[in-house]
């Protein structure tokens, strides 16, 4: 998926206020940035995915927290 398509999907998910899609697309954006070794950008997207996961009680919150912890960007939370 290219960046423009992902950006469009993120904006659409925001318009629909769909936490599952927001988590999914922010995580995909983070994965892409991580692959490109742009860790600051990856953590930016991971943080957004994590916040939406926390707010919605999504099970992805734990894995997202662990990824942020691994980069020194968060403290480990217990779920």
Level of helix content? over 70%
Query: Sheet with the most strands?
Result: none
Straight-line distance between termini: 32 Å
Gyration radius (Cα, Å) is: 12 Å
Mean pLDDT: 97
Supply the number of helical segments: 4
What sort of overall outline do the alpha carbons produce when their principal axes are compared?
A: flat
Low-confidence stretches: none
Order of helices and strands: HHHH
SSE class: mainly alpha
Please indicate the percent range of residues in DSSP E strands (runs of 2 or more): under 5%
Total number of strands: 0
Could you please describe the fold and organization of this structure?
This protein has 79 residues and is mostly helical. It has helices at 3-16, 19-35, 39-56, 60-70.
Summarize the structure.
The protein is an all-alpha fold. It has helices spanning 3-16, 19-35, 39-56, 60-70.
Pick out its properties.
79 residues, single chain, 76% helix, mainly alpha
Give the topology, please.
Blueprint: H1 3-16, H2 19-35, H3 39-56, H4 60-70
Helix pairs in contact: 1-2, 2-3, 3-4
